[in-house]
């Protein structure tokens, strides 16, 4: 008889993976519909939802279809909707963003009217959707993004959004001092309960490509004077700590999937909730590979979002929020 020299393992981690029930029991990370926020686009003047070429399954809503979709998200238990406006007219100062009748403010009012209280209403507070040059701020006479002049416009935008019924303002412009400036403007005007979520560690990323399609924004130049260098890890944490010190109610890391180390750093250090944004390019990559039959779509969607939660995100913005919430409710996912 052949006697093996290999000792029999005493410790067998596989024991915990033997059945679906056992795996479910020991799962360390579970998604819940309330963890998820659905980003949504609304186009001024649209009578019908318009498809977005580089984001199959995502549309630019009309105000009517936005209301219905927000109600559907609330029904599914999704934690929030993050609204982005697509204006018909853009100018150098991004006036449609501060106009109370601008498309984003109309959208916030429509959603707050439809489902306010049942789901959190969130608005993007940034100028790139509204400027003709596509930058997140206003420009000085040399064409550079003028930080402090932009803060003045952000303050005005914040008041318009809060007055429209937004519960959470998503500060995505990466200007220095934006959290303190917006908090101050809100408090001064009596909007003490309007929350500020700072896109603190927002990287200058190629993964925002499809988003530019979605908001029909053409950018002159790039955003590297205000968004972070993809190689900088420590700086992501620094930005988050600054926003917390300035009074942010939540901080965000964006994109999510390629920045899980930054997310873990921020989650370890933060005393406020930490959010992550699974951005348009992350969505498009999985959808495109799945269309070719190169990847199992449902599994990849779930895995990509679970990984973001595992790394430390409390809340995740994802274009799959509604789909995942529905799958979770049906019990398709453990
Ligand atoms: C700025 C903003 C952007 C995104 C969210 N807020 C664009 C940018 O900074 O270039 C991108 C989100 C995505 O790609 O899904 N308003």
Automatic annotation (TrEMBL):
The active site is at 202 (schiff-base intermediate with substrate), 254 (schiff-base intermediate with substrate). It is an enzyme of class 4 (lyase). One of its GO terms (cellular component) is cytosol. It catalyses: 2 5-aminolevulinate = porphobilinogen + 2 H2O + H(+). 5-aminolevulinate 2 binds at residues 280, 319. Pfam families: ALAD. Its EC number is 4.2.1.24. GO terms for molecular function: porphobilinogen synthase activity; zinc ion binding. Belongs to the ALAD family. Homooctamer. NCBIfam families: PRK09283.1. Catalyzes an early step in the biosynthesis of tetrapyrroles. Binds two molecules of 5-aminolevulinate per subunit, each at a distinct site, and catalyzes their condensation to form porphobilinogen. This is Delta-aminolevulinic acid dehydratase. It comes from Agromyces seonyuensis. The gene is hemB.
